[in-house]
Amino acid sequence: MNKLHRFSFVPNPASDETVYSWISRYHLMSGYDSFRNTTLALLGVHEERATNEFPCFIPSLSQMTKVAVNDIIKQMTPYHYFAPFLDAATRKSFFKCLEKGCTSNLQSSLGMVANRITPGQFLYCCCDCIAEDTDKFGFPYWHVEHQLTGVSVCSKHHQLLHPVYRVTRKVPILPEAIPEPDSRPQDDRLANLISTELSSHVSLNTDNILIAYKARLNSMGFITVCGRLRLKLLREALKDYLNKLTPGLLVCELLKKQLIKHRYPECLFYAPNASHHPIKHLIMIDYLFGSWRKFSELVNSNLAESMAPQPVHVTQPIMLSAEAITKISNGISLRKVSVDEGLSVTTLKILAHREGLDINLRPSKIFKYMERSIWLKLMVGNTTSSIADEFSISVGAVEVILRKFPDLVVLRKRIRVYKQQIRHRKALLGFLNENTNPSRGLVQKTIRASYTWLFKHDKEWLYQNLPAEIPREQRYACKSSKL
What is the DSSP string of 456-470? Predict the structure, then answer.
């Protein structure tokens, strides 16, 4: 059938009605047999799904119904759901794609694919809305607002939306009244915010969005005096917010996973030029402001920039103590001094240069003859700190040599174990020589560290050298005599 033919009649679109709902009503009223071979064929739809969020047949539908493309896009698609968070160029490109029917890559360009947030496989309806629409218009229809990601309840009737599986291109469907439980207060608030955003048709000054966020976060204590975000606290707060929504919502579960992986809300602040799904902004807005009007007014006002938190610069310089100066002058390693002073090694170097101290006390290069000597000392089990002091190099330089020889690491571990074995065996034998007939319990209690190490690593030797255990019957006799 020629797609340039006009529809024989055009039903008036209802308020907040989706494009799919409009053509479904047309088909059911027309009496045509096949939705795919007649109505969709008239629109030139051959492979696409008619229920798509961004239908490709808007230009054809406009031409055949004589309804302006601009009206269809702005009143019957989620254009105003995405538009506020897009810069002017992206917003214009978004509208052009809808206007020309080039919608195959829109989900990717708007960040829906990258964010793993898509409309899903269901259409949603409200039982009370169906009753009101039928009473007012004579028919039920699909509402644009109910299909938006993040809307799980009807903002008007405060009940959960009923999901209906998106059918194929074969048949058109309209919603049926199936009751659902009442919603939670948090669901209602988020749904009201999204409903206000959709109907406000506001274009935000996108340059001020992050400024508004940070201004509000600063007033709530989520920003340090240096202007850094307290992201751990913010993640916990957003997690509590999401837990108050109806359990099981796919978008909430997805955002919880992103909170755990530190991908949200970091992405909003550290990748501001990327395409983020509106629900990420809307949840942040609901948590911070609780109102779309307050947020949009702040973003589009001149107050946003003036409210942005300014980092506080510490003007008092850090001074090096007299004790630290003495230690550095005497050749004490910067690592040891940093521990005593509570400063980083890098800070110590800067302060030492400021004081005119010579900190280049160690050679920058270790020669072969020195490396050989260090290797021999490592092989016999000398500690890295003692070797570093002997050769006037850093502990890190000794460890670099150690890492060159993996077998040395294994050997040194065996040497350490052997030395510990000798020490703990000596402690046990010394205690047994100093005490006459001690019990095993007394040995364990008195030299607990040595007893525990030998029990874990040298149990056979331990039991060979411990006093004989008290026979079981004598243990009871000892206990009764004490009583």
Answer: HH-HHHHHHHSPPPP
CA–CA gap between residue 307 and residue 210 (Å, rounded): 11
Beta carbons within 10 angstroms of residue 138's beta carbon? 7
Residue 365: per-residue pLDDT: 59
pLDDT at 8 (0 to 100):
64
Tell which residue, 69, 60, 59, has the closest CA to residue 4: 60
155, 33 contact by CB (below 8 A): no
pTM for this predicted structure: 0.62
Helix (H) or strand (E) holding 125, with range, is: strand 122-125
Cβ atoms of 245 and 190 within 8 Å: the answer is yes
DSSP 3: T
Report d(CA 392, CA 370) in Å as an integer: 11
What is the Cα–Cα distance from 351 to 342, expressed in whole angstroms? Answer: 13
Q: Is 158 left (phi over 0), alpha (psi -120 to 50) or beta?
A: left
The C-alpha atoms of residue 374 and residue 366 are separated, in whole angstroms, by: 10
Which phi and psi (to 5°) does residue 174 adopt?
Answer: -120, 155
Model pLDDT for residues 274-312, shown as the tens digit of each residue: 889 999 999 999 999 999 999 998 898 865 555 555 554
Cα(29)–Cα(240) distance, rounded to whole angstroms? 48
Task: Specify the residue for token string 């890559």.
Answer: 105
* Mean pLDDT computed over 146-155: 93
* Cα separation, 70 vs 150, whole angstroms: 25
Backbone angles phi, psi at 111, to 5 degrees: 85, 10
Q: How far is CA 210 from the centre of its chain?
A: 18
Contact 220, 288 (CB under 8 A): yes
pLDDT at 163: 92
Cα(123)–Cα(142) distance, integer angstroms: 8
Any idea how long the chain is?
A: 483
438 cis-preceded (ω within 30 degrees of 0)? no
Please report, for residues 247, 284, 328, 478, 481, the alpha-carbon distance to residue 295 in angstroms, rounded to integers and kept in the order given: 27, 11, 55, 80, 82
Secondary structure element (H or E) that encloses residue 165, with its range: strand 162-165
SS3 state at 17 = strand
Instruction: For residue range 371-392, list pLDDT tens digits in order.
Output: 888 888 888 888 888 888 888 7
Asked whether 189 and 286 are in contact (CB, 8 A), the reply is yes
Question: Which amino acid is residue 281, in one-letter code?
Answer: H
Q: CA-to-CA distance for 79 and 48, rounded, in angstroms?
A: 19
d(CA 148, CA 279): 9
Q: Alpha helix (H) ranges present in 225-333? A: 231-243, 250-260, 266-270, 278-288, 292-299, 303-307, 322-329
* Distance separating alpha carbons of residues 101 and 97, to the nearest angstrom: 6
Contact assessment for residue 408 and residue 398, using Cβ atoms and an 8 Å cutoff: no
**What is the average pLDDT score of the chain?**
84
